[in-house]
Specification:
single chain, mainly alpha, 18 helices, disordered N terminus, disordered C terminus
């Protein structure tokens, strides 16, 4: 270590080995958008919400968007001051301390992992639909779905290990094409099918508030991942500008897309026959039976492509969180290794991908329906994200106070956001318990393990807890290059 101008400068960043400061704004934004998977979310999640609530589709998404905008407002100030590589995990460490950070880390890893599993399951399901639409019966559907999942996982792993640049470009291209395709197809559906339109019923509260609360949690799963750009703090150019900008605009842009899409689907699903509304892939079936098989195939291709991009983006974020834990000694040190040529966290990627691939394949092999599998995985993933959002949002006022920038507004914003997210979670847990669902119990078990993990570390190796929350720190070379260019570091 050396001291320059009364500041301690590290000769090497704690996250050295990652590709540093070379990712422009567009790839950073692409990472966040792909993790949200708007095209896939517009096609699949509204149908899951519709099946959960029966109605209240648009209202569920409006409430979910409002909650996500509150979370975004809490994360931006921390992203403007800290070039994190593990996102919510690091923010929580600097705000609430290491023990809370361990829980936030487990929670966000759980969220990223479950959404990646759901995405692979969706890729397999919609990929098999394409085979059946083009060639009739493709043989054993279970085998076809399994092979598609394996192929998609292998390709995603290749892109992620090969480099963040190539994976960001692939996800951006796939997502843009998917969004344009879906928008065009929905427009064509309304022109050709001309369903009955009753705009007055779109935002009215139909049914009971319990089902609305559960619908909001499922709708939240369509937004989660918007914060994944916070895991690129070490790799992004101008991270204190580009990452907060991404956090601000991702939920706004995707929320606008969702509201347009769910408005159309709310109208279409209410007008659709019962066998379509209850289908695991209702939007695809609606195109198949009410317009043309070709349009259904195009839709399935767009959905599968969007969820493939979501898999890549989700595991990219998950791997960087695991990578930081490996560097800190919270996870095995081998997970903190980077590829010497591609400068990616290859060890963390290769550790996560077999588990993420095995779960959806196991569900398919044991006959779990696509609708049930996607609902369970998306809901569980949403719990993971929401738990991490609560801790990260609660960290905001403590984070700012620690650096001498605390204000009454930060306390009010943090409290309002925590209250809003906690209210959504509490209502969803209550409804799930009444209906006998075990998702909340599974997530509660994960939280318990995370607390035990933190306490075990505090007992056996307290020095490791002191090092939690590493981020990309200035290096001596940064100071020298700044001085050489005439800029004050």
């Amino acid at each position: 270590m050396s001291v320059r101008r009364n500041r301690v400068i590290s000769p090497q960043s704690p996250v050295a080995g990652l590709s540093r400061r070379n990712l422009p704004f567009i790839p950073v934004f692409a990472q966040a958008v792909a993790a949200v998977a708007p095209a896939g979310g517009m096609s699949v999640v509204p149908a899951l919400v519709f099946g959960t609530t029966g109605t209240n589709l648009v209202l569920s998404f409006l409430i979910a968007m409002a909650v996500m905008l509150l979370v975004s407002s809490c994360l931006r100030p921390m992203a403007q001051r800290m070039a994190a590589v593990s996102g919510l995990y690091s923010y929580t460490a600097k705000g609430l301390g290491s023990s809370a950070a361990i829980t936030a880390g487990w929670s966000v890893i759980f969220g990223y992992g479950l959404i990646a599993m759901a995405s692979l399951l969706a890729v397999g399901t919609y990929g098999a639909n394409i085979f059946e639409s083009l060639w009739g019966s493709a043989g054993d559907r279970t085998l076809v779905v399994t092979l598609i999942i394996l192929a998609a996982a292998a390709l995603a792993g290749f892109f992620m290990v090969r480099g963040i640049h190539i994976s960001a470009k692939v996800t951006l291209l796939v997502e843009c094409v998917s969004i344009l395709l879906l928008a065009s197809l929905l427009t064509a559906y309304f022109v050709l099918a001309r369903p009955h339109v009753d705009l007055g019923s779109l935002i009215s509260v139909n049914g009971n508030f319990d089902s609305l609360s559960l619908g909001v949690v499922v709708a939240v799963s369509a937004f989660v991942g918007f914060e994944s750009s916070t895991t690129l703090g070490g790799e992004a150019q101008r991270p204190f500008i580009n990452i907060p900008r991404t956090i601000r605009w991702t939920p706004i842009v995707t929320g606008a897309l969702y509201l347009l899409a769910v408005t159309g689907q709310d109208i279409a699903l209410k007008d659709a026959p019962g066998f379509i509304a209850s289908s695991p892939t209702p939007l695809s079936d609606m195109f198949y039976f009410k317009t043309s098989a070709l349009m259904a195939v195009m839709l399935d291709a767009g959905i599968a492509g969007s969820f493939f991009a979501c898999t890549v983006a989700s595991v990219n974020a998950l791997a960087r969180t695991l990578f930081c834990m490996g560097r800190e000694g919270i996870a095995p040190a081998i997970i903190g290794r980077t590829h010497p040529t591609f400068r990616t966290p290859w060890a963390a990627i290769l550790t996560a991908m077999p588990v993420i691939t095995a779960v959806p394949i196991t569900m398919v092999v044991f006959g779990v329906s696509p609708e049930k599998g996607l609902t369970n995985l998306f809901t569980l993933g949403a719990y993971g994200y929401l738990g991490a959002y609560v801790l990260a949002s609660a960290s905001l006022p403590f984070f700012l106070r620690r650096i001498g920038e605390g204000t009454w507004f930060s306390w009010a914003l943090g409290g309002l956001t925590v209250g809003a997210v906690a209210f959504v979670v509490w209502n969803a847990v209550s409804v799930s318990a009444q209906e006998g669902n075990i998702q909340a119990g599974v997530y509660g078990f994960i939280l318990t393990l995370s607390v035990l993990h933190a306490q075990l570390l505090r007992w056996r190796s307290p020095a490791r807890l002191d090092g939690v929350g590493i981020y990309d720190e200035p290096r001596e070379s940064d100071i020298h290059s700044s001085a050489d260019s005439g800029r004050i570091p």
